[in-house]
Design brief:
Elements (H helix, E strand, L loop, with lengths): L2 E5 L11 E5 L2 E5 L8 H4 L15 E3 L5 H4 L2 H6 L6 E4 H28 L13 H8 L2 E4 L5 E2 L5 E6 L7 E6 L8 E4 L10 E2 L10 E5 L12 H15 L2 E5 L5 H14 L8 E4 L1 H12 L6 E2 L15 E4 L2 H6 L7 E5 L9 H8 L6 E4 L8 H6 L4 E4 L2 E4 L3 E4 L9 H9 L7 E5 L3 H13 L4 E2 L5 E6 L4 E4 L1
Parallel strand pairs: 3-4, 4-5, 5-6, 10-12, 12-22, 13-17, 13-18, 14-16, 14-17, 18-21, 22-23
Antiparallel strand pairs: 1-2, 1-24, 2-3, 7-8, 8-9, 9-10, 11-15, 19-20, 24-25
Helix pairs in contact: 4-5, 4-8
Bound molecules: zinc ion.
Length: 471
C-alpha cells in the first residue's frame, strides 16, 4: 500500500505551505497557507487546489501565521469538512488572524470594484468573515506532547517549535499498512536563547523530515541585538525623529516592544513613548498575557508585571480615531504597525507620512518576501508606491534580522544534527529556491540526504529503504 507526500505550497516560496499525505483512501493535509508576495504567487490562491478539499479527512496546523493557516476558510468553503488539529494557543490566535485576513480580502475586493481594475466583475473576496466563522468550527485544539489519532490511522504529536505562541513541529506517523513511518513537519522553527518564546523542542525520532529553509544560506547578525538597535535608535531619537517599525501583529510586535522596553529600562536608550497601532496586535497581546504562566512562553527573569506583558507606558491604539491621533504627534517616539512586509494595513499610512522626512527611521525586523514593498526597499529602491503615490524614501532605514523568529542556517542544521537518529530523507520546503539549495548543500556536506521539492510534486514512500521516489 502506498504512502505519498505532495508539496502543494511552501515549495520554491516561503508562503502557501500545504503538504498532503495520502494513504489509500485517506488524506491528511499539513498546513493550509495563503500564498503571498509576488503577484504570480498571490494568483495561485485563486487556482483550484491540485487535490479535492472534500477528499481530505483532516488538517494538521503547525501555527497561526497566515502563510500556514490563511487558506483554511476558502478550503472549508470549497468542501473540506474534517477536524483541524492544532495546539490550544493556535486555536486562540487563528480566529484573530483569519478574521483580519477576511477583512483585508473584503477591502481589496471593494477597492478593486471602486477603481474598476479587477478582471472579475464584481471582484469578490477569496473568503469573507462568514467563511472564517464556519471554518473555525472545525478547530480541534490538542495539548503539546499528546499523541492524537487522525482519521485513516495516522497519528500526530505536537511539539513546541519556539517560533510564536502555539507554534509546533509535528510528528506524524503513517498507518501500519502504509509503512508505519514517522515523519516530522518542522513548521517554522524558532531560535534558541530568545526572549518571550522558549527554545524549540528537539527533533524527535523520524525517518523523514520536512524542514523549513527560510534562512538557508544565511546567518543572523552575531552582534548582540541591543547593539544592533541602540546606535541607530539613539541617533533617530537625537534627531527628534519618529521610529517606525513595521511588524507582524503576531509575536513580532510583542517581541520588539519587550526588547525596546528592556533597552530603555537599562538606560541604554532614553525613555520615549512606544505606540502599537494595531487592533490585532492588541488582541494578540491579550492572548500572550493569558499564556504567560503556561510554560509555553519565557516571560524572562524580570519582575512579572502582574499578568501584563507590557509596562503601562506602552500605548495600544485600537480604533481608527486612536490611530489618527498619531499623525499629530511629534517625535521622538516609536510606532509599531503591521503589516511587517509593508504589503498593507495601517503601516502604509505611517510610511506615506514618515518616509519623506530625513529625521525619521524605518526599521525592518522580519523576513521580506520577494514582491513585497519591504523587499523592494532592501533591494535598493528609493521610492515606494503607496496608495497610488510615489513616496520618496528620504528617511534613514535599517534591517535588523536579529529579531527574526526563524532559526538561521546554523540553527536549522544544529537542530537536525541533534536528532536521536539521522532522518533518511529531508525535504527542504518553505524557502526561496536559492535558500533551499544553499541549505541542501550544507546538509549534504553533513552527510544527510536533502531533497528540494518543486511545487505540486509528489513522492512515494519506499518502506524497504525508508526513502522516497518522485511520482
Ligand atoms: Zn511562521
Amino acid at each position: 500500500m502506498t504512502l505519498t507526500l505532495g508539496f502543494h505550497g511552501g515549495a520554491g516560496t516561503v508562503t502557501g505551505s500545504r503538504f498532503l499525505l495520502t494513504a489509500g483512501q485517506h488524506q491528511v493535509l499539513v498546513d493550509c497557507g495563503l500564498f503571498q508576495g509576488l503577484k504570480s504567487l498571490r494568483e495561485m490562491n485563486w487556482r483550484r487546489t491540485a487535490f479535492d478539499p472534500r477528499a481530505v479527512d483532516s488538517l494538521v496546523l503547525t501555527h497561526a501565521h497566515i502563510d500556514h493557516c490563511g487558506y483554511i476558510p476558502r478550503f472549508v468553503r470549497d468542501g473540506f469538512r474534517g477536524p483541524i488539529y492544532c495546539t490550544r494557543a493556535t486555536a486562540e490566535l487563528a480566529p484573530i488572524v483569519l478574521m483580519d485576513a477576511a477583512k483585508l480580502q473584503e477591502e481589496d475586493a471593494d477597492y478593486a470594484n471602486r477603481k474598476g481594475y479587477s478582471k472579475h466583475h464584481p471582484a469578490l473576496p477569496l473568503f469573507d468573515a462568514r467563511d472564517v466563522e464556519h471554518a473555525l468550527r472545525y478547530l480541534r485544539p490538542v495539548p503539546y506532547g499528546r499523541e492524537v489519532d487522525l482519521p485513516g490511522g495516522f497519528t500526530a504529536t505536537f511539539h513546541n517549535a519556539g517560533h510564536i505562541l502555539g507554534s509546533a513541529h509535528v510528528q506524524v506517523q503513517s498507518p501500519r499498512e502504509h509503512g508505519h513511518t514517522r515523519m516530522v513537519f518542522s513548521g517554522d522553527l524558532g531560535r534558541t536563547d530568545m526572549p518571550l518564546h522558549i527554545d524549540p523542542e528537539p527533533l524527535p525520532l523520524c525517518d523523514t523530515l520536512v524542514l523549513e529553509s527560510t534562512y538557508g544560506g544565511r546567518q543572523h547578525d552575531p552582534a548582540p541585538l541591543q547593539e544592533q538597535l541602540r546606535k541607530p535608535f539613539d541617533a533617530a531619537i537625537r534627531r527628534g525623529g519618529t521610529i517606525l517599525i513595521p511588524a507582524f501583529a503576531v509575536a513580532r510586535a510583542q517581541l520588539v516592544t519587550l526588547m525596546l522596553d528592556d533597552l530603555m529600562d537599562q538606560g541604554l536608550l532614553p525613555r520615549i513613548p512606544i505606540h502599537i497601532d494595531s487592533p490585532m496586535a492588541a488582541d494578540v497581546t491579550g492572548i500572550y498575557e493569558r499564556h504567560l504562566e503556561s510554560g509555553e512562553l519565557d516571560p524572562g527573569t524580570g519582575e512579572p508585571r502582574r499578568g501584563r506583558l507590557f509596562p503601562a507606558g506602552v500605548r495600544l491604539h485600537r480604533t481608527i480615531e486612536e490611530s489618527r491621533q498619531l499623525n499629530n504627534l511629534e517625535g521622538p517616539r516609536v510606532i509599531i504597525a503591521s503589516s511587517g512586509m509593508l504589503t498593507g494595513g495601517r503601516v502604509l499610512h505611517h510610511l506615506a507620512r514618515l518616509l519623506p522626512d530625513g529625521k525619521n527611521l524605518l526599521v525592518l525586523v522580519g523576513y521580506q518576501a520577494a514582491g513585497t514593498r519591504g523587499r523592494r526597499l532592501l533591494d535598493g529602491e528609493r521610492t515606494l508606491r503607496i496608495h497610488g503615490q510615489d513616496v520618496p524614501v528620504n528617511c534613514h532605514w535599517i534591517s535588523v534580522d536579529g529579531l527574526s523568529a526563524h532559526a538561521d542556517e546554523d540553527g536549522l542544521v544544529d537542530w537536525v544534527k541533534a536528532a536521536p537518529h539521522k532522518p533518511a530523507t529531508i525535504f527542504l520546503a518553505h524557502g526561496e529556491p536559492d535558500a533551499s539549495e544553499a541549505l541542501a548543500a550544507k546538509l549534504t556536506a553533513a552527510g544527510f540526504h536533502p531533497v528540494v521539492p518543486q511545487l505540486d510534486r509528489a513522492y512515494e514512500f519506499i518502506p524497504a529503504s525508508r526513502h522516497w521516489r518522485q511520482v
